[in-house]
């Protein structure tokens, strides 16, 4: 009976059984903060291999303790998270926990970081060069520049085609007008002798009529 008292005291203390502690995932390692800006930052971490991780949770608070935020995501294999709505030039403390099939891990070591000024957020530091978001923006800028060049080339080609068409149209119009003038000129010249000949015929007819009257 005396041998049961230690077991009874250990169970009544409310400790988690050793089996449950063994099934809990280990705490994340290599927690770091990258891509610091005035109102955002990216937290990344690593998880030891061999453990089934189904999510993560992040506790965020200001160093002065006035604000605290808790982020929890499940059904994801992500190893990073973007923190939004941060205040500029403010010190923050974060800790990350892994979520496994049997519970959450212990919190990682505390990581301190400080946000930038709004005026300095565009002067990126060396860590921003590896930012996927920044790389995506750079690619989109290159795509926009290429699209603008293509649009300008197409517009120039269309302008050249329209100018060539207008030039050819003017040439054709000038040729048509000159041809019409040449056709009208011979017709006018032909009408004159016909009119005169007609006049002479009429005079001859009048003379014949006069001669006939004199005979009578």
From TrEMBL:
Main location: membrane
Composition bias, Low complexity: 1-13
SUPFAM superfamilies: Fibronectin type III
Protein name: Fibronectin type III domain containing 4
Biased composition (Basic and acidic residues): 176-197
Membrane topology: Single-pass membrane protein
Matching CDD domains: FN3
Stretch list, region Disordered: 1-28, 176-199
Entry GO CC: extracellular region; plasma membrane
Record keywords: Glycoprotein, Membrane, Secreted, Transmembrane, Transmembrane helix
Keyword Secreted: yes
């Amino acid at each position: 009976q005396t041998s049961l008292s230690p077991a009874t005291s250990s169970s009544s203390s409310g400790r988690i059984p050793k089996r449950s502690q063994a099934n809990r995932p280990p705490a994340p390692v290599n927690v770091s903060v990258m891509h610091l800006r005035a109102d955002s930052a990216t937290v990344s971490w690593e998880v030891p291999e061999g453990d089934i991780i189904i999510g993560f949770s992040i506790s965020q608070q200001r160093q002065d303790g006035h604000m605290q935020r808790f982020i929890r995501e499940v059904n994801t294999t992500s190893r990073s998270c973007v923190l939004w709505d941060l205040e500029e030039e403010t010190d923050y403390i974060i800790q990350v926990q892994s979520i496994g099939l049997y519970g959450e891990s212990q919190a990682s070591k505390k990581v301190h970081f400080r946000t930038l000024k709004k005026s300095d957020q565009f002067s990126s530091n060396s860590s921003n060069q590896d930012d996927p978001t920044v790389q995506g923006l750079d690619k989109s800028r290159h795509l926009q520049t290429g699209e603008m060049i293509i649009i300008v080339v197409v517009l120039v080609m269309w302008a050249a085609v329209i100018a060539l068409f207008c030039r050819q149209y003017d040439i054709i119009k000038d040729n048509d007008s000159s041809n019409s003038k040449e056709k009208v000129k011979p017709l006018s010249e032909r009408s004159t002798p016909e009119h005169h000949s007609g006049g002479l015929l009429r005079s001859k007819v009048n003379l014949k009529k006069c001669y006939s009257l004199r005979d009578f």
